[in-house]
């Protein structure tokens, strides 16, 4: 069992992601936001086709382009939510991810940085 899978193991059942599935955690910044003018925008506000970033916390055996700790960009409408020990996570397929951000990708020289 990998360290990430072990972190979900408690006295009940450990979790292992299968196939091309990844388990991600949304950052705190994905909830309420502030506009450049300082106006608070609630998480429930309708924003058309806005992609969001999340951190990979577990990955299935067939995931090829992501590792635990990477940040991924995805459409929040294409997700399945799950609660593990009181914490909210999202399950995605690898094909539903639009971009990956990680320090290990710096060698490719894309010129784009977060």
Would you write up a description of this structure?
- A 6-stranded antiparallel beta sheet has the order 6-7-1-4-5-8. A two-stranded antiparallel sheet has the order 2-3.
- The protein has 114 residues and is mainly beta.
- Helix content is 5%, strand content 34%.
- The protein has one domain: 10 Kd Chaperonin, Protein Cpn10, Chain O, CATH 2.30.33.
- It has 1 helix and 8 strands.
Q: What is the CATH C-level name?
A: Mainly Beta
**Relative strand content:** 25-35%
**The CATH architecture:** Roll
Largest beta sheet, briefly? 6 strands, antiparallel
And the CATH topology? Answer: 10 Kd Chaperonin, Protein Cpn10, Chain O
Overall average residue pLDDT: 79
CATH superfamily: GroES chaperonin
Number of DSSP helices?
Answer: 1
Number of strands: 8
Strand order of the largest sheet: 6-7-1-4-5-8
First-to-last CA distance: 31 Å
Which value, in Å, is the CA radius of gyration?
A: 15 Å
How many structural units, i.e. domains?
1
- Any low-confidence stretches, pLDDT <50, length ≥5? none
What helical percentage do the residues reach?
under 10%
Order of helices and strands: HEEEEEEEE
Shape by Cα distribution:
globular
């Amino acid at each position: 069992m990998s360290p990430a899978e072990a972190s979900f193991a408690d006295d009940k059942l450990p979790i292992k992601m299968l196939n091309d599935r990844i388990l991600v955690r949304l950052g705190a910044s994905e909830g309420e936001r502030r506009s450049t003018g300082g106006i608070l925008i609630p998480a429930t506000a309708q924003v058309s086709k806005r992609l969001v970033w999340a951190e990979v916390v577990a990955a299935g055996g067939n995931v090829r382009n992501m590792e635990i700790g990477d940040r991924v960009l995805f459409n929040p409408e294409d997700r399945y939510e799950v609660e593990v020990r009181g914490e909210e996570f999202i399950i995605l397929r690898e094909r539903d991810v639009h971009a990956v951000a990680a320090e290990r990708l710096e060698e490719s020289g894309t010129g784009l940085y977060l």
